[in-house]
Write a structure and sequence with these properties.
The protein is mainly α. The protein is built from 7 helices and 4 strands, in the order H-H-H-H-E-E-E-H-E-H-H. The chain starts with a helix and ends with a helix.
Length: 251
């Protein structure tokens, strides 16, 4: 039997099904990754806010009730606030909560506006990549890991020397938890840490910049596929003014 013209020129149901399943699997994988990052950011933001509140509350009670306090409380809340900011930067990209000026782009035709927006997103990706390199190089000093070579973009990793190890650097006040003592042989040559080593709180630098890079790539894909038309926050203030105006006119 010979296939008819319709059968020859059009894919079979099985072919369409396999392609559809492949696309569905790819979309499902991306959505699972996106959901994981969303839950990670939201969970850590909530935990950090809760921890800052608890530490501050305990310090206030101890100070005014018992004339005492947590010596490490201020340092811990400062570090947690830095973590909160760096998590918030990437999360704000996802929610388009960053401020921006779009007076010029709004005056452009649709095609030119999309090209300018894509160019801005690409610049943001490059910027986030540079931040990630700088953050890694700074954090690596305290984690006994090699920095990258290259001035702007990484071209490899430097050769590590014993004098390059900085894993013994510790914080000023925050004590070392006993459940983290297992890292001492690897990073402090077996000696005990009196205070929390700096590479632990500083880890948010490369991690936060990696999240930021991921979010900008996501935003670029959304812009390229037409699922979004801006990198910045919507005009919420103007919308609310219009809403109030319409309510007043209705009265």
């Amino acid at each position: 039997m010979h296939a008819g013209p319709d059968q020859a020129n059009h894919p079979t149901d099985a072919t369409r099904g396999s392609k559809g399943n492949a696309m569905s699997d790819a979309l499902h994988t991306r959505s699972r990754l996106g959901r994981f990052v969303n839950e990670l950011e939201e969970t850590f933001i909530a935990l950090i806010l809760g921890a800052m509140t608890v530490i501050t509350f305990i310090n206030v009670v101890l100070r005014y009730g018992y004339n005492s306090g947590l010596i490490w409380g201020l340092e811990a809340t400062t570090i947690l606030f830095a973590w909160l900011v760096l998590f918030g930067i990437s999360y704000a990209v996802k929610t388009t909560a960053h401020l921006g000026v779009d007076a010029i782009t709004n005056a452009m035709p649709d095609g030119a506006r999309k090209l300018v927006t894509l160019a801005a997103a690409l610049i943001c990706i490059i910027y986030a990549f540079l931040l990630l390199k700088g953050a890694w190089d700074y954090w690596a000093n305290f984690a006994n890991l090699p920095q990258t070579t290259g001035r702007w973009f990484p071209t490899g990793f430097e050769e590590m020397k014993r004098t390059s190890y900085r894993g013994w650097y510790a914080l000023v006040d925050t004590p070392m938890p006993d459940w983290l003592r297992w890292i001492e042989p690897a990073l402090n040559e077996g000696e005990a840490y009196e205070k929390l080593p700096r590479f632990i709180p500083y880890f948010i630098l490369p991690f936060g910049m990696a999240l930021l890079l991921f979010r900008f790539v996501q935003a670029f894909v959304r812009l390229a596929t037409g699922k979004s038309d801006s990198l910045i926050v919507s005009h919420e203030a103007e919308d609310q003014v219009d809403e109030v105006r319409s309510l007043n006119e209705g009265d």
